[in-house]
């Protein structure tokens, strides 16, 4: 085979590789363990500190662990924290395909945790939050890729660029040869009515925990009366099914609602709610493995798995992640580890 043909074939194979693209934002979390939060003017010493990437990084890292190409389409700045973000992306094999912003550093968040594991947050937004209407103009998803939208992108000026991307994506998922997955947020009261409308019209796959699903239902004016479901034995399951049914009807789009070790409830438009059992496990930290779950689900969808099967594998991965942590941050397992638990 000629060298030109070899290069062409390799390029074709690279283009066909399952890909997860995140339109989310990445910043650095500085974790600080303290005995007690100091009062104004006082002094405290942290027992441990470690900067770790936050935001959409953990979703992309989880997707990468599943063996797909992971790409970050958000903005990265120019400075100390931006350099740290770029370093962890390189180490994790995540490509940055988004914009670079000179003379503005990426953001960071101070996370204080006391002896009772209560957390206090102080955030500084940086380059990742300073987008405009052209932020995602150059993002053109390849066939069969999955585009992930994080809730944090809905809450600042970068949302203008996201809205433009949604309008280009259109309102008919069947006309796309790629999939759209959206993580909701509990801060939907800060999202404009116009963006909420465009998100619903785009009909993505909605992924959220139970609290976020309730917040979304409230924002959309969906009244859910679950008083009759709260009975002894099975009340929680009935409540989750009702929530997914009513919210799914309003969204007219696929819906995944996570519930920790109980797994997740999945509803497709016009279909019945399916409960996909989780894997009971003992958590060794207080942080949720929701990012791991979403990243793995996106990766499996990109690989061609059905939504229920993608959620089933994500349940297994999240269960393993909640058992292991790197200074309080859940560690997503490999594809082989997740499948071993699923098949055990």
Automatic annotation (TrEMBL):
| Superkingdom | Bacteria
Give an example GO cellular component term for this record: cytosol
Name under which the protein is recorded: Kinase, PfkB family
Q: Name one GO molecular function term.
A: kinase activity
Keywords annotated in UniProt: Kinase, Transferase
Q: Give the source species.
A: Bifidobacterium angulatum DSM 20098 = JCM 7096
Q: Does the keyword Magnesium apply?
A: no
Record-linked InterPro entries:
PfkB_dom (IPR011611), Ribokinase-like (IPR029056)
Q: Which residues belong to any copy of the Carbohydrate kinase PfkB domain?
A: 19-325
